Write a sequence for this structure.
């Protein structure tokens, strides 16, 4: 699977699992995304896809790398719907 396609799927999953905040942006916790069974079946390297989407300024999250457990409560914010 190519990176662009995986990023498109990631955006769809953030929209499916996330919720709109008061400022109108869709947000999802990393732990919810990481532990979702559907996401686990789609993404071989979820963290790599997240980093690629962040570099393309489609999403934002605090820090450079997210790790299961340690960063479960970090918000992943969708910048472009």
């Amino acid at each position: 699977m190519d990176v662009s396609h995986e990023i498109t799927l990631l955006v769809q999953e953030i929209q499916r699992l996330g919720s709109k905040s008061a400022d109108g942006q869709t947000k999802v916790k990393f732990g919810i995304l990481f532990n979702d069974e559907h996401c686990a079946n789609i993404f071989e390297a979820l963290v790599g896809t997240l980093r690629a989407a962040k570099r393309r300024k489609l999403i934002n999250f605090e820090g450079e790398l997210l790790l299961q457990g340690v960063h479960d409560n970090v918000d992943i914010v969708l910048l472009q719907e």
The first strand starts at residue 19 and ends at 20. Residues 3-63 form a domain with the Arc Repressor Mutant, subunit A fold (CATH 1.10.10.1540). The two ends are 22 Å apart (CA to CA).
